Amino acid sequence: MSNELDSLFSGEDKGSLRMFAMLRDPSVTQICINRHDRIIYWDQGGQRMVNDLVFAGPAQYVAWLDQLLDLTDAEYRKVESAKVSVIEASFRSDRTEVHGSVHIATPEVTRAEPALTIRKQPRNFIRLDDMFRSGMMSSEMRLFLQQAVHGRLNLMISGGSGAGKTTLARALSDFVDPVNRVITVEEIDELHLDEKLPNTVSLTSYRNRDDEGRLIRETSVEELVREALRMRGDRIWVGETRGREAYALVKACNSGHDGSITTVHADNGPQAVRQLVTYVMESGLTEQVAREQVSRAFHLVVQVTKERMGRRVIREITELEPVLEGNQQRSTTLFAYDPTRDAFVTMGRPSRRLVEALARYGVNLDDYMPRA
């Protein structure tokens, strides 16, 4: 589909062709444009700035943005006529080979030129072995995570922006039994599990607005998670939990949808749990009931961080136990990364609850974490 991108522009529009070449470049993971002459991108070497002039001026930049929107599922095709503050969209697989999402802050809120953020996912799936070889985890952690997915534990993957949460979730899908029916729910299409797992249905939220930008109809992530419960899914994966959909997901985890996974934007595991509790409370539950529901829903929190020089590591794998100590959920750190020694350390032993949960699906944890 590269020719399709190239054909969007005449030979005179070198700036647009150059930007689409950058978009197709597999080494480029993120592109940010603050205005027509402020272009920043990230590749394997880290953050870089384009020092020469790509666009002749704001008009050419906006024209490129309009062409970019044609490659996405955005409900708008013209940035300047869109009567909204923000445009969010995913790239469409029938229009481009690029995987990723587009976020445009329109002049309505920037009071100047539109601000663009493009986040790309690798076209080829990164495997857990690739992450291990890059130093993201130890061999023991890698094997444990594989067995956690085989044994259908419910996982919460936590981390900051760009830490690699979605990439890790995609890698873990290698260990899902192909006969399992997986329902993915996302605000923006990023997981793409339907490309590798035959029994997968991918759902994304939907909004329809009129010419004045007023919302006519919406299907929210919360509604989609509820619908996923009716679609006979074995596992429900929510790309990112950040609102009332948390309660529907927790209900799914507590009602037989073993092996469910979500990501949460948080700096550490305890904060991720607190945020999930807060999201569940948005559905009207008291804090105590919300904590009890969350404590029974998830088995593990996997904390991913970006360390020095952009290296990504799994900082901790923590088991959550359905026991509250004061206002906190009891937890046991199973594995941790020690930055002072640049070493991964095996810590505590899994609880009987975790051992029994894995055994239900034929995983004997003693084969992988022998007792001392």
What is the total tally of β strands? 17
Structural class: alpha/beta
The main β sheet shows up as: 9 strands, mixed
Count of helical segments?
12
Strand content: 25-35%
Radius of gyration: 22 Å
Give helix and strand order, one letter per element, not per position.
HHEEEHEEHEHHEHEEEEHEHEHHEEEEH
Second CATH tier, the architecture of the largest domain: 3-Layer(aba) Sandwich
Shape: globular
> What is the CATH C level class of the largest domain, in words?
Alpha Beta
- The percentage helix is 25-40%
Q: Roughly how many Å apart are the termini?
A: 55 Å
Main β-sheet, spatial strand arrangement: 9-8-12-13-7-14-15-16-17
Sequence stretches where pLDDT stays below 50 over 5 or more residues: 1-12
Any idea how many domains? 2
Mean pLDDT: 89
CATH superfamily of the largest domain: P-loop containing nucleotide triphosphate hydrolases
At the fold tier of CATH, the topology name of the largest domain is Rossmann fold
